[in-house]
Protein: Aldehyde dehydrogenase 5, mitochondrial
Organism: [Candida] arabinofermentans NRRL YB-2248
Amino acid sequence: MSSNHFASLTFPIINKTYEQPTGLFINNEWVASKSGKTFEVTSPITEEKLCDVQLAGEEDVEIAVQAAYKAFKTWKFVEPSVRAKCLFKLADLIEENKELIAQIESLDNGKALHCAQFDLNLVIECIRSCGGYADKNDGRSIVTDANHMTYTKREPLGVCGAITPWNFPLLMLAWKLGPCVAVGNTMVLKPASATVLSNLFVCQLIKEAGFPEGVINIIPGSGRGCGNSILNHPLIKKISFTGSTGVGKTVMTQCANSIKKVTLELGGKSPNIVFDDCNVEETIKNVIKGIFFNGGEVCCAGSRIYIQATNEEFYNSFLAKLKTAIEEIKVGNPFEEGVYQGAQTTPDQFQEVMDYIKAGKDTGLKLLTGGERIGTKGYFVKPTIFYDVPQNSKLTQEEIFGPVGVVLPFKSIDELIEKANDSDFGLGSGIHTEDLNKAIYVSDRLEAGSVWINTYNDLHQNVPFGGYKQSGIGREMGIEAFDNFVQTKAIRYKIRVPQI
Ligand code: NAP
Ligand code: MG
């Protein structure tokens, strides 16, 4: 690999230095962009530049797609156990480098180190789990009549395009790469420009894991440039997109031109429901995890907190305990001991969060806690909660994507279900109660892809994740993830009476 596509980077506070790849990863090599253009990577912790990275444009997409197209012809037919072995090896290599990669993720994204470590565990287990599926992608034998033998195959689609967001940079890569290549597809992935470092670092491990050249190509570039070229490339047969609902609509529209298969993981405004018979101590932890984990930059964040208020004493005392617990949260440099919440990832997103907070204050919403920036350097925001917020408030209806939650009271199950479902989104949800009957009754009526009972953000590689309504189409993780990356071929053989 060419040494001019690496930069030496140093982590703040821990003062450790490592070599960061900065090229485009195509055909298992680091290459420069054809235009010669680069872009700056900055850290949201310090707002300082870290390095320049090659910027992929249309010509680079063409080269990457051709590489993936060529690789597909062979990769499609290799023994599934070979694909499994590459995925297992990749999971092992990421595990061996886990601490460093988590630090890279925190440096680039701003997330607290414990959040990056959570991501890394899921990345490793997801890739390993996909390796385990590679040789189990079986079709069906179908009985029709005595004169036919009929069976199906779950065949790969070809070159798949993936476009990912900046909140879980490596985890989104894992959710797409794992099932995609396990079943014989090849891929071209464009990470969000704001957070490319962990993806590029892992490319070295992809090569070391034994993936043949062209199977996995990772090319940083802008959404409108590189992303758009991926959406429009006729050789790409499927797009797996994670990001905002707005861009998701563009993706779907663009993919219609060449009838690409599309899966979308989009935004959310998830209800986190607290009944007055819950275990209060555990529920406070789950409410905090729901909205402040990863700085609230979580598509399934429990950002609408519904608290039972038939008994005003419970409602008020829960709010008081929540306020105390939130004010104990340590926000700051992700590498500092005990920090729960790091920096917001991008200046634009930081500004958007501050604008929502201002809108809440300007419309007279009651502030339980937070509501301000912390310091003047780095994008740090105090964990913020507004309470007694109306259902039709902008802050209840729109995704904020930051550490800002709204609390709404409810007095009956019917009222709760109506309000919880009164959203364009339907990604996550939480229910906190010691009454199993209540938990199941409500979970059956929530319009959401995930329901967490007495837990929150409780993701597992074996459990499918995805959205109802405008939160998306398709599922990631679990067996369901593979359905997104295959097409069914039916083979029917006419049996004649044999003559000997
Ligand atoms: P975004 O603006 O939709 O960007 C997502 C990705 O799409 C980035 O790689 C971006 O590239 C690219 N992109 C932007 N415009 C494009 C276009 N016209 N054509 C092709 N690609 C384009 O979202 P974001 O601001 O990065 O992420 C935050 C949003 O993602 C939130 O709304 C959140 O809810 C959602 N999200 C959902 C999930 C989920 O699992 N459902 C997970 C994470 C995030 P550049 O940024 O490089 O230009
Ligand atoms: Mg960055």
